[in-house]
Specification:
Elements lengths: L9 E6 L8 E4 L2 E9 L2 E6 L12 E5 L5 E2 L1
Antiparallel strand pairs: 1-4, 2-3, 2-5, 3-4, 5-6
């Protein structure tokens, strides 16, 4: 789990497998660019607008075509 203070921006490091340059984070069906770190990590700059209300979020990382998909 990742917790953030209300109304603040945050940096999130997502870990997984087979990430590639150009991967996009999809949070609650909204795409957000990532910073590629390695095939197992991408960095996400979470905007303040995502922390304006309490609740949980669904996060997926999507690799670009060709061969892309949700990781």
């Amino acid at each position: 789990p990742f917790q953030v203070t209300l109304n603040t921006s945050a940096t999130l490091i997502a870990s997984g497998n087979n990430f590639v340059q150009g991967a996009t984070a999809v949070i609650n069906n909204i795409p957000i660019p990532t910073i590629f770190r390695s095939p197992t990590q991408v960095e996400i700059q979470l905007p303040t607008s995502f922390t304006a209300t309490l609740g949980s979020m669904i996060l997926n990382i999507r690799n670009p075509a060709p061969g892309g998909g949700i990781s």
